[in-house]
Design a protein that fits this description.
- The structure holds two protein chains of two kinds.
- Chain A is built from twelve helices and twelve strands.
- Chain A has helices at about 15-25, 35-40, 75-80, 85-95, 100-105, 110-115, 120-130, 145-150, 155, 225-230, 235-250, 260-285; strands at about 5-10, 30, 45-50, 60, 65-70, 130-135, 140-145, 165-170, 175-185, 195-200, 205-215, 220.
- Chain B folds into two domains: about 1-75, Ubiquitin-like (UB roll) (Roll); about 85-155, [2Fe-2S]-binding domain (DNA polymerase, domain 1, Orthogonal Bundle).
- The chains are: A alpha+beta, B alpha+beta.
Chain lengths: ~280, ~160
């Protein structure tokens, strides 16, 4: 329970929200879908800035080069959107695997990234798609690779009065395939292992490889060594198996009472293998 | 804090604690169809429609619904004049023990509002957040599909 909470702010624009956050004298936090905030036992938060009603933060748009998603867009809107192509399909799949309809109506595209729990589903998808995040501090904005935000923890990365306003995902042309998979006890339960991958093939060789995992780790990570191993090689079953082995080798596995570390490590390797197989098969089409 | 909301079409001006959860505010205001199950957003017994979207009211802070419109199962119909969905749940024996019904009905209503011709897969998808401990999962799907047909035919019902 948020014991000390006394104040709600309802900004109508991003600028207003940033101003309220920047000028706040009390300990203030951003509220979007509220699913994590409501369950948080934080007795220091005194005020919340509710950005979920800011219209300019809720949209799913796409053109020939990129997809743009407003930070306060409920993930249900991504799941039910008519996005297509490699990036669009992957985002829809990942969004659809989040909890249930009731949760997807609350959880937002930006909140799933900024609250950044181990079991958050979208960050791994954002990472393999080389997504960028538009952060706004009133009018001024900066566009940064999503990995920067994740690696330095979103809360620390954002300045006072700065919010994530948009997630931008590039569109990939022919020769690229992607895959997203999640293992959990039930489809509604927290993820135990999340695996996302993207492969771009040119002239029979892997030109670009992306592999990201979450849930089994404390935060989403890119498996850069495995990516390097795959790059510039001809895809084969042996190569995929080797990359999967490499990806789980040095993994720092988060404890979870739902399943042992040994079990999850073994399953993770299999999931990575299948994920790469799927991405490669789709890229070849 | 003051909370202005419309619940089932009626305006309310409530005095609530800023850290109160919507489920408690609704139950205190007399809307007892809103059930408390898991209290962590997993089971859907507390589902209500907020501005047209079904959500778990146990993980919505009351302050988040300022000036919103809320629909609970009470707003669907009553024993004398039940909503088509409510009648269909009864006719199909989808009621079971009843505890998950208000939430399931809200999810079903939200589905039919958006998609009047749902497939079985659509219904399963829409009700995926409403757990039924009696495991009455088949009959409620039949009930929702049947309701959709009745509404399609324009058979006289309520609402």
């Amino acid at each position: 329970m948020l014991k000390k909470l006394t104040q709600f702010y309802y900004p109508k624009t991003v600028e207003e929200a940033c101003l309220q956050l920047a000028n706040a004298k009390e300990k203030t936090s951003v509220l979007a879908g509220g699913t994590s905030e409501a369950l948080r036992n934080d007795s220091t938060i005194e005020a919340l800035v509710d950005i979920s009603k800011i219209k300019e933060l809720s949209y799913v748009k796409s053109d020939s080069s990129s997809i743009a998603i407003g930070a306060a867009t409920p993930v249900q809107d991504i799941y039910k959107s008519d996005l297509s192509g490699v990036s669009g399909e992957l985002l829809k799949t990942a969004a659809g695997k989040i909890g249930s309809t009731l949760l997807r109506n609350a959880i937002t595209a930006g909140g799933n990234l900024v609250a950044l729990f181990p079991w958050s589903d979208l960050p791994a998808a954002y990472m393999v798609l080389d997504a960028e995040v538009v952060c706004r501090k009133g009018k001024p904005k900066r566009t940064v690779p999503v990995i920067n935000l994740i690696n330095s923890k979103p809360a620390a990365f954002l300045d006072k009065g700065e919010i994530v306003a948009e997630i931008k995902v590039p569109v990939f042309k022919k020769g690229t395939g992607a895959s997203f998979a999640k293992m959990s006890k039930t489809s509604n339960d927290y993820s135990l292992i999340t695996v996302a991958s993207r492969i771009t093939i040119a002239d029979g060789k892997i030109k670009e490889a992306r592999l990201a995992i979450n849930a089994i780790t404390a935060q989403p990570v890119r498996c850069e060594e495995a990516e390097k191993l795959l790059t510039s090689k001809k895809p084969s079953a042996e190569l995929i198996a080797e990359a999967a082995k490499k990806a789980v080798a040095g993994l720092k596995i988060r404890k979870d009472y739902r399943a042992t570390e040994e079990y999850r490590k073994e399953v993770c390797e299999v999931m990575i293998r299948r994920s790469l197989e799927e991405s490669i098969a789709k890229a070849g089409k | 804090m003051k909370l202005n909301v419309k619940i089932n079409g009626k305006k309310f001006d409530l005095e609530v604690n800023p850290n109160a959860m919507l489920i408690d505010v609704l139950r205190d205001a007399g809307f007892k169809s809103v059930k408390s199950g898991c209290n962590e957003g997993s089971c859907g017994a507390c589902a209500v429609m907020i501005d047209g979207r079904p959500k778990n009211s146990c993980i919505v802070l009351a302050g988040q619904v300022q000036n919103s419109e809320i629909l609970t199962a009470e707003g669907l119909g009553n024993p004398e004049t039940p909503h088509i969905l409510q009648k269909s749940f009864v006719d199909h024996g989808a009621t079971q023990c009843g505890y998950c019904n208000p939430g399931s009905l809200i999810s079903a209503k939200a589905l039919l509002d958006r998609n009047p011709k749902p497939t079985e897969a659509d219904v399963k998808d829409a009700l995926d957040g409403n757990l039924c401990r009696c495991t009455g999962y088949v009959k409620r799907i039949e009930a929702v599909l049947d309701s959709a047909k009745i509404i399609q035919k324009g058979t006289k019902g309520n609402k």
